[in-house]
Amino acid sequence: MGMEIKHFQITLLLSCCLAAAAAAGIGSSSVADAIADVARSLARPPSTWTAGGGDACSFKGVTCSPSGRVTAIDLAGQGLAGTLPSSLSSLTALESLQLQGNALSGAVPPLRAPSLTRLSLEGNAFTSLPEDFLRATPALRSLSMDGLPLPPWPFPDAIFSCPALHNFSASNASIAGRFPAAGVVANLTSIRTLRLSHNNLTGVIPMSLGRMASLTDISLSYSHLQGPVPAFSPAVAADVVAGNGFCLDAPGPCDAQVSALLQVAEGFGYPLNLSRSWTGNDACSGWLGVICDASEVTILGLTNYNLSGTISPAIANLTGLKKLDLAGNRLTGEIPDALAALPSLSLVDVRNNRLTGKLPKFRASVDVSAEVNSPSLGSHHGSGQGSLDDGSSQSSDSAADASSKLSA
Ligand SMILES: *[C@@H]1O[C@H](CO)[C@@H](O)[C@H](O)[C@H]1NC(C)=O
Ligand SMILES: *[C@@H]1O[C@H](CO)[C@@H](O)[C@H](O)[C@H]1NC(C)=O
Ligand SMILES: *[C@@H]1O[C@H](CO)[C@@H](O)[C@H](O)[C@H]1NC(C)=O
Ligand SMILES: *[C@@H]1O[C@H](CO)[C@@H](O)[C@H](O)[C@H]1NC(C)=O
Ligand SMILES: *[C@@H]1O[C@H](CO)[C@@H](O)[C@H](O)[C@H]1NC(C)=O
Ligand SMILES: *[C@@H]1O[C@H](CO)[C@@H](O)[C@H](O)[C@H]1NC(C)=O
Ligand SMILES: *[C@@H]1O[C@H](CO)[C@@H](O)[C@H](O)[C@H]1NC(C)=O
Predict the structure, then answer these.
(1) Which of 197, 221, 217 is nearest to 209 (CA)?
(2) Which residues form the signal peptide (predicted)?
(3) Same structural domain for residues 184 and 329?
(4) What CATH number should be reported for the domain holding residue 373?
(5) Using a 6 Å cutoff on CB, does residue 174 contact ligand 3?
């Protein structure tokens, strides 16, 4: 504790204000505690990090301000194992935390550091992120977290809490779910480097990504991205196409049926199993649930896919569609009226969903099955002779019925 006291005394000497000295004193002791906690929770702390003794500011990799507050911890590539303590959040003066290239595991503790500009976590074995991740570090400029074995997590919209973010590198970091929408991308106003390769990002990329003035380096390869490739300026280092499911390898619009089906997938939130299959520019090349006749999509059958979200009116753009089976999912919202205009439609099965509203006015020739487990779906169904279920039939049989109709 000798060094700790010395620090305190220097602070006192430098300061003519008793209150400031007291504040610095409190800072120092919590610093010592936090650093001691870190040392204790590491499996192989650096030799100077002896738990509970010495001046924390003299430890290897620790940088302090003149008042004895820890401003930087650099323990990159030190062969460290073990976990990080939650008391790390008491180091509120941290400007840089570099822990990359170790074998640290467990939770990334919450960080409450308004001046933190650099956070490097990549190449460790962390298995969870704090609930307020990115929300309490508003000055962050560089965040790298590649190669962490996290459970699947969505692209962090909380990134807007970090308006100064220049570098965001999270390749192979288990990010799953749809690529952020245009409004989200528009908010990344400072971003220069965006590296998100080797994740499970799905769906269509907003074309506005190609027009972000700040961007110099982007990699999105090896995910499950679909639809058109954005056009980047030649000045941008872009590694985007490889290992994805874009319709074409170069910028340009997709085939009309592909566009319509991708809008349908968007309604479902671009689920991974559809994104894996619905790739390229030919919807008739064996896409999951899609059956064609003479290059025209005639059947869309996604029974029991556990789909959530809504039924896109873009289905009406599949002008050759004869059968639509979306039974046994968790779909909400209404059945779009536009579907009633499909000229060749003969079967619609949407039983066992959570749909609401009224059935569109399908022609009498359309066999419509709806309602089971969708009690709020109005029974008004226009002129269709729809076999509207009264809710008494066995739900397990409904799906089988529908499948047999579809395979006809
Ligand atoms: C992804 O990270 C894991 C460790 O979490 C590593 O074993 C694997 O090799 C990495 N894959 C790629 C493609 O970098
Ligand atoms: C951001 O990434 C670029 C490489 O794209 C690198 O040169 C720069 O040092 C990084 N900045 C920070 C603050 O890490
Ligand atoms: C993508 O998701 C699958 C299934 O959930 C998982 O096995 C795989 O590791 C994930 N890949 C990446 C790169 O996160
Ligand atoms: C963009 O950021 C602002 C705050 O900076 C926020 O209010 C807005 O919701 C964000 N936009 C989106 C699409 O998330
Ligand atoms: C598709 O993926 C979802 C989860 O993303 C899963 O619940 C569902 O069972 C999968 N459907 C099929 C048919 O594999
Ligand atoms: C269906 O999806 C939800 C979330 O999307 C998931 O929690 C649930 O486990 C899935 N069910 C099945 C049977 O896959
Ligand atoms: C059908 O396609 C046209 C042209 O691609 C598009 O403008 C329109 O929005 C689509 N309709 C629906 C309901 O998505």
Answers:
(1) 217
(2) 1-24
(3) no
(4) 3.80.10.10
(5) yes
